[in-house]
Amino acid sequence: xxxxxxxxxxxxxxxxxxxxxxxxxxxxxxxxxxxxxxxxxxxxxxxxxxxxxxxxxxxxxxxxxxxxxxxxxxxxxxxxxxxxxxxxxxxxxxxxxxxxxxxxxxxxxxxxxxxxxxxxxxxxxxxxxxxxxxxxxxxxxxxxxxxxxxxxxxxxxxxxxxxxxxxxxxxxxxxxxxxxxxxxxxxxxxxxxxxxxxxxxxxxxxxxxxxxxxxxxxxxxxxxxxxxxxxxxxxxxxxxxxxxxxxxxxxxxxxxxxxxxxxxxxxxxxxxxxxxxxxxxxxxxxxxxxxxxxxxxxxxxxxxxxxxxxxxxxxxxxxxxxxxxxxxxxxxxx
Length: 334
Prior knowledge:
single chain
């Protein structure tokens, strides 16, 4: 018996009846010879970690644009925090940790430079719209591996696409990642906002703190424990109404005071302008795109190829490219 087969047997004995066993995966679009050491979900996790898109997350904004401090989150550290919360949930609920980890690691691979500012700008540029969760699936299906994609399992691809948006994941493991994403970003964005003096501790909503906790770790612990208690033995991942209401109230507070506040408006306008100008430029100069993206323009349309190119940029590369296109040599804007 191979190690993979041993893991399959162990999953059948120990996982919740509502968990997704690796042996029962719907499989890949292109069949692969099974690995003797790893299950299909472990293999997906490794493919994501070794992808170029995963490495680029280190250079992409979470909330703070080009922060000077060393301790602000990036899209990569956000991804790792989501993975940690999601695996804690999966372990406590006897779900498939490998599937959960793979989805969490891949959930933001399609995110744009400048965070959600870049996403909104591309959404305005494209007639068909742009959503980072759909782009994340496109990265693993099409863009990685020079157009061949990563050939991931159905469950991982579904979890990546459905971590946000109106469509919900087909597995409880995907639902864990969907909740973990919100738990992670609400708490670490709040932590970063306090560190950056965007918020003062006395401004935080008392009602939320009384229910969720007054420290970063207390709030995460409260949310995670509540999900575990409410979801134990159920074919559903849920929060209790009081905790859910407090979490929603905290989210609304963050949108009002951090995500949409005037301190962001000036930087947001600049980033918005950069994406729009580069999108228009490359739509009119597709020959200047890298070859892989020129092929996409030919096969799927100019807007699609340009959006794929721009969304894959790190913040630093986007600024450097903008300068090379629009700023005379010898001058600098950023």
